[in-house]
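Ticket #4471: structure output looks truncated?

Reporter: J.K.
Steps to reproduce: submitted the chain below (159 residues) through the standard prediction queue, then opened the result file.
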Amino acid sequence: MNPQTTTDKDSLSTRAAGDIARCPKDEFRPEPIPILPQGLADKRNDVRNLAAGAGIALSGRAIGRGTRLATDVGLAHTLGPASFGLYAIGWTITRLATLVSPMGLDAGVIRFGSESWRVDSARVKSTVRQSLLYSSLSGLWWGGVFYALAPWLGARVFP
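Returned output as attached by the reporter:
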């Protein structure tokens, strides 16, 4: 196989080791290292930061789930089946309530607060106050409902 040999200074073609010794020095220049434009370099840094943050979040979630599993195993062993069953039901109800309880108010504050974040600080304060008021009233109402239903739930649902 005979490698190509050229005298064109702009062409970087494959050469055998013996050809390098016979070529003039200025013909073989190292290929320049490409310098990334500033925008592309910033994007690469953003991707690296995002990947690092995602790795930290994934690790934290895995550690949290592992800790939760170890805690549940310890509680099940300590409490016994009946008591741990009641604990698990209570934990499940609490988790479901935390999913429903914001009622979309957190997303509403982000949406409506971000529209006027730097333009109208009074509107942002009003949005946050309304969200806190509605969530407090909702929490008090649901707390009262469950407090009123507690004897019935204890006797009928969880005998």
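Triage note (M.O.): checked the attachment and the full token line is present. The chain is about 75% helix and 0% strand.
Status: closed, working as intended.
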